[in-house]
Amino acid sequence: MTRLRHFAPSIVAGACVAIYLFPLYWMAISGFKTQAEIFADPPSFFPRAPTLDAFRHVVQNENMPRYLRNSIVIALPVALVTVALSATGAYAMRRLRTRLIDATLIAVLLLQVFPEALLATPVFIICKALGLLNSYVAVVLATSARAVAFGLVILRPMFHQVPLELEEASRVDGCTEWQTFSRIVLPLMRVPLMVLGAITFAQAYGQFVYPLTLLNRQELQPGTVGIYSFIGTEIADWHRIMAFAAIFVLPILLLFVLLQRQIVSGLTAGALK
Amino acid sequence: MLYLFGMIGIPIIYNLAMSVQDVNLGNIASFARPFVGLDNFTDALADPVFRKVFRNSAVFVMVNVIGQVGIGTIAAACFAGGFPGAATMRGLLLAAWILPGLVVGTVWKWMFATQYGVVNFVLAAIDVIGTPVHWLSDPSASMTALNIAHIWFGMPFSMILVAAALTNIPNELYEAAALDGAGPLRRFRYITVPAIAPALFAIACLVTIASLRAFDVIFALTQGGPLNSTNVLPLLSYQASFQDFQFGRGAAIGSFAFVIVFGVALVYVRTLRSEQPA
After folding, report:
1. What residues of chain A, 67 to 86, have a C-beta less than 8 Å from chain B?
2. Which ipTM score applies to this complex?
């Protein structure tokens, strides 16, 4: 009885979490259904005869592999650029404490909040003028510009935790600024940088507005745009759309499960400090 | 020293590039077309659709702030109980937040389907509704559907931030209150809420900014329809630019929304500064 009391809150909370994540479950199992079962009334909460047909269909006929590849081709450089620029930027911001830096920080905070959908218009015009339409360079630059601002916000408090004595000691030992940064500070920041990379990757992977506006050749478009055009053309094929969505989110869900603890602590440190 | 300037130069140049984008927004009309002054603004403001969309944005943001922060606070307080597995379960909820907004919108679109959607099925099964609700095609229901989907998407993020604020409250306060005979609800009301009020305000600002940014979920779920009942400012700006190809008008609507976002962002920055003078 005491045992039951001990675990009762966990069981209740577990049930709540399960209900909350029901949309994810629904997405996944809808993909395992046949078209007949999708339109069954009442709907089945467990697929009666699970089949991989929908998954096979999106891989073979809907260019799923190409969409996945495009999404990763966009997200990886965005994550790398963001981590590199945010790390150097956050370090510089810590070392030089002047009024200029304070102003920069506020500017960065403000820049971080602007909606992509609003920026899409000017970015589109700029890229058109520069002849960058239909190139990944444009999408990567536009996406990472926002991500760097987010990265600075998240990383700055982390960099503040490195004791100044450590850096002074390394300088006394004859290290240059760059050596101090790359040999002393970076290794200490391994986990936050990894978290930032993971979050940026996930967000760039799910980026929709920029690819939609900047890439109009279908073979270049990432999975988000793919799902969207899929809804447009085959509104009745929900099992296939859900199969597409399930495959598409699998990489970031895996990434999330692997780094869950670090992501949670990284987010809380950055957003409120 | 030179290197330091290089390192700090990079983000600043980056910022410059970004602010150029922002600046361009206001004067795109004079960039490639004849100068039209404030016509785009007055046109946009005079449009009844714009006013409707503006109202929608206000409602959407308000419901989302109350919903996300409210539910997030309650959830965070429940998980703060420290029962086995609490931290892991709390983290799992964040899975909803990490998903691409477009996928979230798509999944909810399927769940909100009138005839075969699981939402209508469950509501009918527990006798809440008699006839199926046309969630996405009835202008009076569509905003509710959108709010539910968007609160689902954003709540875990608020919850994690509230949870972080909760850990700063000393346990002694609760123990003292418990000794004085305060039940869990009163402890929540008189200790938890006042203690995290400043943090809640900062989180509310963040949610406001995030809701003003909402695009992907709406785009996948309703496209702003039916009859613009779920249209919001960023989406309207996008439609003006990329569907009607009136870039000037899109930019004007955009600039208008920028001012609002900018105002909220200033409040947020100010809150952070006053919270910890450093």
Report:
1. 85
2. 0.82
